[in-house]
Structure formats: structure tokens, C-alpha cells
Amino acid sequence: MLQRLNPASVSAPFSRYSHAVIAPEGYRWLYISGQVGADRDRKIPKDFEAQAELAFQNLIACIRESGFDLQDLVKVTVLLTRASDIAAYRQVRDRMLGSVAPASTLMIVAGLAAPELLVEVEGVAARPAERTA
């Protein structure tokens, strides 16, 4: 089981995430490329919240298609192009991830792969390795 840590010697997280997550020996790892707010047809909504929701839906789809669960999420790295979207990002993240509190890094960047993209989310997940006899 993943162990989520928030050391008493470090300030409390600014929102729902953990300062560190330990995965025990023998776990399988999943590295998820940055997911953006685009649908299957590569349509990108103009609205930040719609893009953020799509980015998390895409991340969660990658997790589930790989045989992992949302609880297996160890870390997310989030890139935003506007600092003014931080509060909206946190609301979308909390709604999409529920009680899961992965380690997290949030960066404000000058731009993403296409100028209309406002958010990108990548993730790392870990779960117990399947043992075969």
C-alpha cells in the first residue's frame, strides 16, 4: 500500500496533496505522459475549467486502461500557462481526484505545445506487482 506523508517539520500542504509518497518494494510503476485539455477529436475548449477537466479525464483514462486505480496515483506534475487559474485548477483537481492526495508539483509556464492549451497534467502511479506461480 502506498504511504502518503506530510512531515510535521514541513509546512502543511497548500491544498489537497501529499509532500511525499512511498511505494514499497515489489510495486509496478506507470509513467503517464502529460495530458492536455483536448478530446478524442483533438478539440480544445477555450474555457480553462473545461480543459482542466479533460486533462484529468485523460489522465484517469490512462490510469484505468493500464489496469491501475486512481488510488495508485503517486505524483502529478501540472503545468498552467496562467497563475490566475490556480484556484480553478485546485477545484477541478479536487473534484476529479476526490480524496486521493498524490505528491504534486505545480508550475506556471510561458506556454505549452499549442498556444490554445492552458493546462497539462502528467502522472506517476504504482501498485503491487502481480505475482504468478
What key attributes describe this structure?
single chain; 133 residues; alpha+beta; 60s Ribosomal Protein L30, Chain: A; four-stranded mixed β-sheet; two-stranded antiparallel sheet; 23% helix; globular
What is shown here, in short?
With 133 residues, the chain is of the alpha+beta class. Helices cover 23% and strands 30% of the residues.
Secondary structure topology:
Layout: E1 3-5, E2 20-22, E3 27-36, H1 48-65, E4 73-80, H2 86-97, E5 103-108, E6 119-128
Parallel strand pairs: 4-5
Antiparallel strand pairs: 1-2, 3-6, 4-6
Fold and architecture overview:
With 133 residues, this protein is α+β, with helices and mostly antiparallel strands. It has a single domain (14-128), classed as 60s Ribosomal Protein L30, Chain: A (2-Layer Sandwich). The protein is 23% helix and 30% strand. The chain has 2 helices and 6 strands; from the N terminus they run βββαβαββ. The chain has helices at 48-65, 86-97, and strands at residues 3-5, 20-22, 27-36, 73-80, 103-108, 119-128. The strands form 2 sheets. The chain has a 4-stranded mixed β-sheet. Helix 2 links the parallel strand 4 (73-80) and strand 5. Helix 1 runs parallel beside helix 2. It is globular. The model has no long low-confidence stretch (mean pLDDT 95).
